Amino acid sequence: MFKKILIANRGEIACRVIDTARKLGVATVAVYSDADRSARHVAMADEAVHIGGPQPAESYLRGEAIIAAAKATGATGIHPGYGFLSENPGFVEAVEAAGLTFIGPSAKAIRAMGLKDAAKKLMEEAGVPVVPGYHGADQSDDLLAKEADKIGYPVLIKAVAGGGGKGMRLVARAGDFADALASARSEAKTAFGNPDVLIEKFVTSPRHIEVQVFGDGTEAVHLYERDCSLQRRHQKVIEEAPAPGMTQEMRAAMGEAAVRAAEAIGYAGAGTVEFIVDGSDGLRPDGFWFMEMNTRLQVEHPVTEEVTGIDLVEWQLRVASGEPLPLGQSDIPLRGHAFEARLYAEDVPAGFLPATGRLAHLAFADGCRAETGVRTGDEISPFYDPMIAKIVTHGPTRDIALGKMRRALAETQVAGTVTNLGFLSALCAHDGFAAGEVDTGLIDRDLAMLTKTPAATAEDIALATLAGAGLMGDAEPVSGFTLWAPIRRTILLDHDGDVLSPAIELSGPDAARVTVGDTVVEAVRGPSGWRIGGSPAPEVAITGDLVTVFSGAGLGFRVPDPLAILSADAAGGDVVEAPMPGLVKAVFVAPGDRVEAGQKMAIMEAMKMEHTLTAPRDGVVGEVLAAEGAQVEAHAALIALEPEEEAAA
Length: 649
Fold this sequence. Notes:
Blueprint: E1 4-7, H1 11-23, E2 27-33, H2 40-44, E3 47-52, H3 63-73, E4 77-79, H4 89-97, E5 101-102, H5 107-114, H6 116-125, E6 133-134, H7 141-151, E7 155-159, E8 168-171, H8 177-192, E9 197-201, E10 206-216, E11 220-232, E12 235-241, H9 248-264, E13 268-278, E14 288-294, H10 301-308, H11 312-320, E15 337-344, E16 346-347, E17 353-354, E18 357-358, E19 361-363, E20 369-372, E21 379-380, E22 387-395, H12 398-410, E23 413-415, H13 421-428, H14 431-434, H15 442-445, H16 447-450, H17 458-468, E24 481-482, E25 485-486, E26 488-490, E27 493-495, E28 498-500, E29 503-508, E30 511-516, E31 519-526, E32 529-532, E33 535-536, E34 540-543, E35 546-549, E36 555-558, H18 562-571, E37 575-577, E38 582-587, E39 594-595, E40 600-606, E41 609-614, E42 619-624, E43 631-632, E44 637-641, H19 644-648
Parallel strand pairs: 1-2, 1-4, 2-3, 4-5
Antiparallel strand pairs: 6-9, 7-8, 7-9, 10-11, 10-13, 11-12, 12-15, 13-14, 15-22, 16-17, 18-21, 19-23, 20-22, 24-25, 26-29, 27-28, 29-30, 30-31, 31-32, 32-33, 34-35, 35-36, 37-44, 38-40, 38-43, 39-42, 40-41, 42-44
């Protein structure tokens, strides 16, 4: 076993590896960028080495700096986590050339599966079923369009390198192919440095089921399947194990195919073989096809650990240190059911845009497994994936595990940034999902319902009003009487863009009456805090002008500056702002150009994904305030239209 390892990663996966290393008595070295000086993984590790600036290219993608850190600290193994350099064969070779051990597969195995087109050919030769499609080297526009016609629409355009939904476009008809191809290539080149794509038949009732494999370089075993069908923009949202509706016959067929795939490339370590499955008529052994193999530990590996009782990171360390596979296929158990929900800092109503912010408060429910790389007070940075945590639950049955997930989400508290917590809660309450009727189109079909912002009750608003008035602390008994008449004060609150104006009257020591519209809410404070309408008030977090009431998935209220409201109203729809921090990748307009509502004006890139910014109304461009290549903050003004009166003149 290793005595000391370096973790070439950050965030929750670095913390996860440190947890297992501690359990095995292995010392750990963290690496960190300028943005991560105070990060949780740095605090947890035995040692930490600074490796560069906040951009990944300046730090976590600098293989030479990581190897130098390992040698300087006496680490003999490097664990790559996932993302960054985890599937970079050149890095593997450099690690080995430095006399260190890469805790993962060989460079040869990574290369074999690194390009989806070559991997599919290899899988066909190994007897693994593959989806009909074009995986050739000729990347001319005309040929790709003809191949799409041959395959038959709908088709998927997919980047041959990378994953995570980047460089992927669904095309429903031939007329949309050219634009989708150009967009997919652009995103793929940005994310992976390789614009090449492949074309695949799109399965109309698809499920995404993947099999966890583990090899020692010669033989491999599988640790059953995970269902990852709940996706948006081809990115996983909630995963579970085992897959709903899975039969023993289907499980055996998929497991055997996955093992053949791993053994065909001499795979060592943890890997995942992903399959697209036709779910239109139940799960059938002839209805699944190879998509790709991820030659690393997956984000969703905890659900496999929960149903097998196996620590996959421990297996990685043991096999990389020269031990045989700890268990044979027949010895691997399958117990109960598990779910994982990915909690992100993202603005769901704005289209799941990544968000930033300082976590003023972060707490997880008792009884769940929370994998996180952040703590209260930490910053969600614009430079990296905005994941806050993976919330994992396990139970003897699917219903029990899902019930535990609903409770875990309801009791999770996040303040200081917007999150997808409400969306996850709505998804776990979805009747079809609860019944196990899952496919990759479920979220898009019911997106309006799943992203509906819950209405704040009068009691929620009353509690936010107390907070906005500064009455939440352990203060002296509140009072406010002039000639025995209660003082009445109006508090402005901004909730999801709606400006509310509840009024508060102090009706006695530690008592208040809050008027919300036509409703009057009585509030009384006792030793254990406020009671609102006779019931104990939910917890509240206050950071700056943001008040978060932990009712349901959490409700955010801002106490705005009245002058700022007037200024925003005056601006109207004249200014196109950056919806999130990111890079201005392209600007398509110039001052004086006439534009129509909805016309594409610019493209921003954030988290390696592209976001199109459009004109809010018909008009004339007055100013372009940000140039291509500029890094901007959220809400920065990018393009200003002339006021409507001037445009009309």
